[in-house]
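Batch manifest, entry 17 of 40.
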Amino acid sequence: MSEDERVVIDFHGVDDAAVVRLDGKEAIVQTVDFFAPIVDNPYDFGQIAAANSISDIYAMGATPLFALNIVAFPRNDLPMRILSEILQGGIDKAKEAGISIVGGHSIDDQEPKYGLVVTGRAVVDQLVKNSTACAGDALILTKPLGTGIIATAIKHGEAEENLIQEATALMTTLNALAAELMIKYGASAATDVTGFGLLGHLLEMCEASNVSAEIKFDQLPFIGGTATLAEKGVVPNGTKRNLDHAFQQVEFGDSLQEYEHLMAADAQTSGGLLIAMPEENVSPFISDFNSKSPFTACQIGVFHPSSGKKRISLL
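Output type: structure tokens
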């Protein structure tokens, strides 16, 4: 931990954002993320990148305040109107989150990249960390999985238009509702599911909280078409690295195929929140969330005391 006594959370942990205490009980919560395009439409890419960046603030139970752009763009190789569309997507998504983009920084680079530095605020005692899950808590996921596999299918020209639209709608949807309701219903811990995939982020939560998790593959929600693409081998390298990283800590059920292992490890962009919550609050949370969200939240498993062996059982 930092020697600065104002620092509440820094890079030594695995939480989604840094936290620095202000005077009194409030704190600044800050995060940064950016990446190369994963869809062809520049405006959609801007929205996705912004939603993904803001998600880390929501995952901490914090309220976003403002953002700064981070941009890399090949100004001599692509029309500047493409950059304008990317930035407009980010502006509109930030506006939807109730914040402004007030500045930023850009560089000339061969590959376009875009994202945000997002600043939020929270009451220190009300932060939702990923290190405070408890044995007996239920495990809830608020968006379906599969965006990494589908993004790879888009690059290879193997994704149908309806699948692209479904994945884009998912990735451009803010996690604001999930964050609001996890506070309302007393979440013990949370994280968002992004580049490390479900297994990677769940493993971080288990290790930080000193618990283990049991999840059922047939309870995991996936975007339609994900299984077909995965079985065909349309899988990003990041997903394969995720599985390699988590493999020694996961007990896989005998009935599961290798492509199903990869589906559970799929590297996500702007995925849902992964929430630990007392069992008695699960039903009202899911009912409330599902009545307001275009996506269906579901319980995918439960936390157990740490076994000292495998951290995750995927059955």
